[in-house]
Specification:
Chain lengths: 404, 371, 404, 371
């Protein structure tokens, strides 16, 4: 039991680190200020040097590396200051789906541009009435000659307004049971008939969009999987959704963040860190974060051995999301009467914990609510039975939907 | 045994409910939240016209001379409606501070105006993050002039006068300060709940008039906070119940997997727990109301109990209301966040749950020592 | 809003108090040492003076008093030291059922003896495979001439070995849906074919029994309600199950108990009551107990007004049971390294919190588990829908039962 | 990165598992629980014959000289089996105390016997309820003679010697005391978990041999407790997992309302949370094991983290296992209570969750100060 690399891993790490240390500083020369453009510039640098999408086959723009090498590179990349983001959905979810379902020609056309960062993709799955029940989607696709015509609405789409392409699941037949009438496509986000509206969150930010489709045409050649088999394709996509174990590192909503705040505040004229109730609470969070950190280490070891980590990864988000909300709330309480202020003068980290508290409910819902995460653990990890399903054998258009 | 509000008080509640349904639906709170104004001035005038601001002020000072129970009823309905008015600052606290500690002259000068809603009072207490203690107070009064800076003064930007905690030498006292007078600078600050306005106030040799006995500032403040704690608790419990109602309505009409999400045990049990928290908090509020209305010796314990319980209930209900709403719950468009913001504001601005828990035990210990 | 009686209530209280103060001391003259016999002696004293079963009609041994008077008497009785118990099931559950379903002759025969304490009754509802699902019972009743013949097993029967009579629900027809094939009886517990075995609990106590029935005969005249309508009769019984709000008074597993212990123990050489974590926790329990206490007061006010308190009473047991387990666990922790000792020398209240911790899981299960209590609140108070039921329309003998 | 046990260690685990399945099924714990004997002597002999008692003792003292990881593997399996033997007292603690603080002579005298299971050691620490501090220690050693009374000495009634915390003047030190010698009186005491034996021991001028440096008692003890904390944590996490397994099996076969109770969301989510607690605790145990095996500077933090996490997991799982079993869960006949008793015993007898949480923060603070 050790934290050290094998010789081979150490060599790879060395090589990655050397390249990163040489190249990351070049980002200073990139003139663009837009975060997306900066991320694209860095992605292109990696791509050109063979450090993009490490596990992909070389012919699609990758390096053919192992899971463990990919994870080592990510770790090393985390140590240098470079712009990230914008590619998670395209590279992490769309690309694996394309690899499994697209034609060879399409793969050659789209995957390298995904790897290089030239194209950004988004995901069009969720719908307003769907929520946790993804397969309840109603966006219609109707075959018309060589095309399909799409009408409906998607929601919670990150990056819709700057994406080049999207992956999308639609209902092609509402008269068969729910999971049997779905068909899956990829499409050009600049197609006519697409309207994108940002959603304002309670935090005031707008990280997501609603996307409206009015007679949008998609060529049948962009269908992935067979007609009516969109559910299986969606599962491929979602299996690749990064069930990241948020380690709760040195961020604001962590033991360290809370400890730092507590050490600057007083309770009854003594540092709050001397208060036993505060210490008890801090210790609790420390243990949770430590538990997640070493669960991640165990997962990495499994990867290193060549095993595929299972759905037990879903504990990360479940534990972190609730903990984040608790930490934010607790820290605001520590500030006492001025706790609701967003102004920096009202105390250390002015406004940061407060804004984080406004953002934290999203963490417990986005990417699978606490309840869905617990269902996943109960069913897929512990093997407990599904709840009774009343919607499985019924034609989709006869399933009760209530008022909305 | 009659541990409930009287039929007259329930009539007042019905009036308040329908008045606020008309004048202060949630969109009124939202307008202030999203806009530039510090409060809804028209609503405030209507509230004053209803006589609510005069509730507990004795008739000799042109008030209605009603009891504390009537004020509790009003607090509850204002809490449910999230009404964007300076009622808590002016009525629960500034008025109470005057009633508890004011000289005859001070009462004469201010209570009548407070009763009419013509004057708005507020409390200026904290100067830094962390718990309020004599050591945390830097503001000083010398030869009747106050100098110092107060943070997060609720309604401080619209109030006419403030009750200010400040030092004279080592003594902490409360002072009345005219906020429209010289040496007062106020700045509205951004907060988690912009539907209730807060200010930073700097005093530079501002006229300060001692309230109560010199050196008794923390003791007088304790009385004011106990009073406020019960009324805040009513606002909080009503907010909590409003969240539970919203969650229930949504869960009944929202379907997933062919059935209302309200039929899933995880959500049913969550809402059952929210209900339990609301019932416990409401019962403790009644205890606080009884203690307040009879000025019972148990008031310090009862006020802390009601406050802790109501803070817990509102927190659970405001957080879980969003969770039960799922994605919709964290959109700006839905009203869940109005209660979520208000819960956190109310949870801290007269001291946190943890502060009141410690105070509760201290008071129980005092009772034990006295027994 | 006040805690005072109305004039009428005050007069009644005065009268009750006077009688109790005069008569309770007479228990000192009762020679019996068996707790049941002592309880019977006290019950007989009350009965003879017209203070037993206050709300019952006078012709059945009661006083025809109001709910509020009954509750005032209980309060006053609680202030004097007299033996109680053994009559809860008979007077509280069997009697109301008899009043509604028995013949006039039977009521005259049995109810006064219940009121006087001469007869003790038990309840035979639960079965091993039943648990929360009461209607899943399988004890068979088969009509044979003027009798019914009973075979099967009941469980969790308190006081079976000292009871004179029992109320019982049986399955008379397994071929119709679950709730439709039940028939309800009362029976003589000395009947041939009844075998009673105590159940040892994890605390070491035996407060419950298993009761086995082998060809036990019950005359049809002792049937309550129609054949096949036993479920409705059971509901009458259960509606009368005292949904008592445990007030969490000055007992061991209460704020007071925990505070008393904490004030005698040290953490880091200071009294544990000075520890902020301990204070926080104690305050939490104080607020819960206070909340239950004043919820009870509100219920009493409703009674006083003539209203019937609703199912919101079920919060009492739910909150208290979990709190009791928490307090016991917490107090054991306060004792630190000697916390698991049952010996009095190991510290204040030696063994008491430890034994209470062993008993506490029972509180979360007996009389309706935490989960059932939350279902009741969700469904009957909040009006949320029942879970999907797969067992409602199916013949009882075709409902899945798994292995047990 | 190889953050898992090696294949040799996993082989040892398989051996331990099948050995204990054979020699120490739950009914062995139950027999000791229900009977008069303090432990299963035959099982103890078999365990010694397997060499488990010799695991970490260097070869020069006739041990196996294996690492701490091997001991962790054994601890885990003993914890799962609830084996009624004095392993934790003798191996995790008394042996470690000698290894950390013993003189060459002391090691020579005792380690060989400990390795063979011929001698059983124990720790005699607490003298009263509440936290262990110098002030709580009344036992004194003067001119080599110990006088005082120790409570809840695990395995104190069957051990051959004890490591005793006592004072000499104001200094606290650890001492080795022969429990079969003069001036020692022992009495078995009733506990919540009679499957593990505990005694009250009175010393009256009993021979006491200083272990380690005079005055360093608490410091040496801290090292022993850190070591024990990791191994206890392995026992606890295995106990927690055993409870989850029991709950799951029962919920899958028990039907209510025509379906397995395991299909109800309230129970599914409960078990999901039990699983989460087990995973976090197990991962923290591995961290503790790594720190122990490498004698890393992080050991004090890692040990406290593993201990807190494992105590939490076992508590939740032992309590909820009974709840999920319903009525059956609180019958003597079912095995739920064996784990419920053991969880509470392990939760306190090297210091409570709250004690270790405070210690954890103290150690993190020390790390920060050193950094």
């Amino acid at each position: 039991m050790d934290f050290n690399d094998t010789q081979q891993e150490a060599d790879f790490r060395q090589e990655a680190r050397r390249w990163l240390e040489e190249n990351a500083p070049k980002m200073a020369d990139v003139k663009a200020t837009d975060p997306i453009e900066r991320a694209q510039a860095w992605q292109m640098m990696k791509y050109q040097a063979g450090w993009a999408c490490l596990r992909w086959p070389k012919e699609y723009g990758g390096r053919g590396a192992s899971a463990v090498e990919s994870s080592i590179f990510s770790e090393e990349e985390g140590r240098v200051s470079v712009p990230v983001g914008a590619f998670t959905i395209g590279q992490g979810m769309a690309a694996p789906t394309m690899m499994q379902y697209a034609s060879e020609e399409q793969k050659k056309q789209y995957l390298p541009r995904l790897a290089s960062g030239e194209d950004i993709w988004c995901q069009l799955f969720s719908e307003p009435a769907g929520g946790s029940d993804l397969a309840a989607l109603t966006t219609r696709s109707v075959r018309d000659g060589d095309d399909w015509v799409i009408n409906g609405q998607k929601i919670w789409t990150s990056g819709a307004h700057y994406s080049d392409y999207g992956i999308m699941v639609t209902r092609s037949d509402p008269t068969v049971p729910k999971h049997k009438g779905l068909t899956y496509f990829f499409l050009d986000m600049k197609s006519a008939g697409i309207e994108i509206k940002p959603i304002k969150q309670i935090s005031g930010d707008s990280n997501f969009n609603e996307v409206y489709f009015t007679d949008v045409r998609i060529p049948d050649s962009q269908r992935l999987g067979k007609v009516g088999e969109g559910w299986a394709v969606s599962m491929t996509t979602l299996m690749n959704e990064r069930a990241a174990i948020a380690g709760g590192g040195p961020g604001l909503l962590s033991f360290e963040g809370a400890y730092a705040l507590a050490s600057e505040l007083q309770i009854d004229d003594a540092p709050a860190t001397q208060d036993r109730a505060v210490r008890n609470q801090l210790a609790d969070w420390y243990c949770k974060e430590s538990g997640l950190k070493y669960t991640f280490a165990r997962t990495q070891s499994a990867l290193s051995r060549g095993d595929t980590p299972g759905p037990e990864n879903s504990i990360g988000k479940l534990v972190s999301a609730k903990k984040s909300q608790e930490i934010a709330s607790f820290c605001i309480d520590l500030m006492e009467m001025v706790g609701a202020s967003l102004s920096p003068e009202a105390g250390p980290y002015g406004g940061q914990f407060q804004n984080a508290y406004m953002g934290s409910p999203g963490g417990r819902i986005a990417g699978g609510s606490d309840e869905i995460m617990m269902n996943i653990i109960a069913e897929r990890v512990l093997g407990l039975p599904q709840d009774i399903r009343v919607d499985k054998e019924v034609p989709f258009n006869e399933i009760p939907t209530g008022n909305k | 045994m009659n541990f409930e509000f009287s039929s007259e008080q329930n009539l007042l509640r019905d009036q308040a409910k329908s008045f606020l349904a008309d004048k202060s639906p949630l969109r009124v709170a939202r307008q202030v939240l999203e806009g530039e104004s510090s409060h809804d001035a028209e609503l405030w005038r209507s509230i004053a016209a209803m006589g609510w601001t005069a509730t507990t002020i004795p008739e000799k000072y042109h008030g209605l001379g009603l009891g504390q129970l009537e004020l509790c009823v009003i607090a509850e309905e204002l809490g449910r409606a999230l009404s964007p008015v300076p009622f808590s600052s002016s009525v629960y606290m500034a008025t109470e501070a005057l009633l508890l500690g004011g000289s005859e002259a001070q009462k004469e000068a201010l209570l009548g105006k407070l009763a009419q809603g013509e004057a708005i009072g507020c409390m200026a207490l904290a100067e830094q993050a962390g718990s309020l203690s004599p050591n945390s107070i830097q503001s000083t009064v010398s030869t009747g002039k106050l100098t110092g800076t107060k943070l997060m003064v609720a309604d401080g930007d619209l109030a006419d006068f403030a009750v200010v905690l400040a030092k004279s030498g080592d003594d902490c006292s409360l002072y009345l300060v005219d906020l429209n007078g010289d040496g007062v600078e106020r700045e509205t600050v951004a907060t988690m709940d912009p539907s209730r306005s807060h200010a930073r106030i700097s005093f530079t040799a501002a006229e300060a008039d001692l309230l109560g006995t010199a050196g008794d500032g923390f003791q007088l403040l304790a009385g004011v906070l106990d009073h406020a704690a019960v009324l805040y608790a009513f606002e909080q419990v009503a907010g909590a119940e409003a969240c539970l109602d919203m969650a229930k309505e949504y869960a009944l009409q929202r379907y997933a997997f062919g059935r209302p999400i309200a039929s899933y045990q995880a959500l049913k049990h969550r809402m059952a727990q929210m209900y339990v928290a609301c019932v416990l908090a409401r019962s403790n509020c009644y205890y606080g109301a009884w203690a307040l209305s009879t000025r019972a010796a148990e008031l310090p314990v009862a006020a802390a109990t009601a406050r802790v319980s109501a803070t817990q209930a509102f927190k659970m209900c405001a957080e879980e209301n969003i969770q039960i709403h799922g994605g919709m719950g964290f959109t700006w468009e839905f009203d869940c966040h109005l209660y979520y913001r208000r819960h956190k504001l109310l949870a801290v601005n007269i001291g946190s749950e943890s502060f009141w828990k410690d105070r509760l035990i201290t008071r129980i210990e005092a009772q034990k020592a006295a027994a």
